[in-house]
Design brief:
Elements lengths: L2 H5 L9 E2 L2 E2 L1 E2 L10 H13 L10 H21 L7 E3 L3 H16 L5 E5 L8 H10 L2 E5 L12 H4 L4 E7 L11 H10 L3 E5 L11 H4 L3 E5 L10 E5 L1 H6 L10 E4 L4 E3 L13 H17 L1 H19 L5 E4 L10 E6 L4 H10 L2 E2 L1 E3 L4 H6 L5 E5 L6 H20 L5
Parallel strand pairs: 3-15, 5-6, 5-7, 7-8, 8-9
Antiparallel strand pairs: 1-2, 4-10, 9-10, 11-12, 13-14, 14-17, 16-17
The structure holds 4'-deoxy-4'-aminopyridoxal-5'-phosphate.
């Protein structure tokens, strides 16, 4: 039994039927399904020890605080952080990137400075920098993408200059599946004196990510894509950077002392966690990390590589289908985007929905990347540890049916 088959029973939602058919969930790049341990831990929090953290001195408040800080320690270990205080809980990748832009960015980026991004970024790693650049008179530059869907590293020499303050790039593309050579780019950026942020939204759930090995300064990640609850996630940053950064939101629990005129702030990470945090979901994110670690990324990555290779091979049999992104299963993950001659991606997704298959259609929050390939939208199937070859077969059969439907019928549905 392979990994997908072995773990499926852990995920109650994967047993849902739609139109009398078993759900085939192929949209994990958008959000992942949750194992029962995650659901149980969420219920346990509200059922047994729901209380605000870092405030009460009674039993359940102490339990909640201990579990919240334990989860932070688990995530620090999960990502190879030097200390647990390097993890700031956020609502996810988007909030983590915005936090860095609004704090480190405002303090360190000035007129004429440059921020280097890539054409394959998710909007959440573009728009915060556009806002900062507009405010500061800074300039955004972009590493181009090749026809194959990889970063064109030959452009790096021209893009990285003494004006570069930050390089911010995705580890793994949510559209192309491409895994980027972060270490190489980080070393080049550091040599020019720039800092490096990596968007780990699509890598942290699927491969062993170690921030020391990546050699970056900031890493943003989303809990809901790594089997955890929505509204959970975080920012990892080197402690000396967090210490030097001004606060993000102002409010309760991030302060040492407040007078009517001014305030002093707590040490990181609390300086960046104003107000009542997302206690339940942040605690349960640690449970999701434990689940992934329990299975082990060697097994997860190997299984997903096998499925991706199988999917890429089988998709080639569908007439008129073009993969947008690396066609070989090398340095790429299981987000597979494609177009089909004569069929709009939304029609593909709609027809497959009738067969209880969930795939995504659209620009996947990466409009500049789609523009680069002269297309408005793609269809995307994206995999996780719980998917199986049978599901890939169902997808491919479904796509053959879509092709038949749109090429034979004079009145396609
Ligand atoms: N970056 C990438 C590469 C993503 O795939 C996503 C989510 N689709 C995000 C950032 C944003 O993550 P979130 O919506 O969880 O903040």
């Amino acid at each position: 039994m392979n990994l997908g088959e072995r773990v499926r029973d852990d995920f109650p939602l994967l047993h849902r039927t739609i139109n009398g058919k078993r759900l085939v969930y192929l949209d994990s790049a958008a959000t992942s399904q949750k194992p029962r341990v995650v659901l149980d831990a969420l219920m346990e929090y509200y059922h047994d020890y729901n209380a605000n953290v870092h405030r009460g001195i009674y039993r359940i408040a102490e339990e909640a605080t201990a579990r919240y800080e334990e989860s932070r320690a688990k995530l620090a270990a999960f990502l190879g952080a030097a200390r647990r205080e390097e993890i700031v809980f956020t609502r996810g990748t988007t909030e983590a990137v915005n936090l860095v832009a609004a704090t480190w960015g405002r303090a360190n980026v000035g007129p004429g400075d440059e921020i280097v991004l890539t054409i394959m970024e998710h909007h959440s790693n573009i728009v915060p920098w556009q806002l900062l650049a507009a405010e500061k008179g800074a300039r955004l530059r972009y590493i181009p993408v090749t026809d194959e869907g990889r970063l064109d590293l030959s452009a790096l020499d021209g893009l990285l200059t003494e004006r570069t303050k930050l390089v911010s790039l995705t580890h793994q593309s949510n559209v192309l599946g491409t895994v980027n050579p972060v270490r190489l780019i980080a070393d080049r950026a550091h040599a020019m004196g720039a800092k490096v942020l990596v968007d780990g939204a699509q890598s942290v759930p699927h491969q062993a990510v170690n921030v020391q090995a990546l050699g970056v300064d900031f890493l943003a990640f989303s809990g809901h894509k790594m089997l955890g609850p929505t509204g959970s996630g975080g920012l990892w940053a080197r402690y000396d950077l967090l210490e030097a950064m001004p606060p993000y939101h102002g409010g309760g629990e991030m302060i040492m002392l407040v007078t009517l005129e001014r305030s002093t702030y707590k040490d990181p990470p609390h300086k960046f966690e104003a107000g009542t945090p997302n206690i339940a979901d942040s605690i349960v994110l640690g449970v999701a990390a434990d689940y992934l670690r329990g299975i082990g990324f060697d097994a997860i990555t190997a299984h997903e590589r096998d499925l991706t290779a199988y999917a890429l091979e089988r998709l080639r049999t569908v007439p008129g289908l073009t993969i947008v992104g690396p066609a070989e299963p090398v340095d790429r993950g299981g987000a597979i985007s494609f177009t089909m001659d004569v069929v709009h991606p939304h029609d593909i997704a709609q027809v497959l929905d009738q067969e209880a298959m969930a795939i995504r259609a659209g620009h996947h929050c990466a409009q500049p990347l789609h523009r680069r390939f002269n297309i408005a939208a793609t269809a995307r199937a994206s995999l996780h540890l719980y998917n199986t070859r049978e599901e890939i077969d169902a997808l491919v059969d479904g796509l053959h049916a879509v092709h038949r439907m749109f090429t034979r019928s004079p009145h396609p549905v």
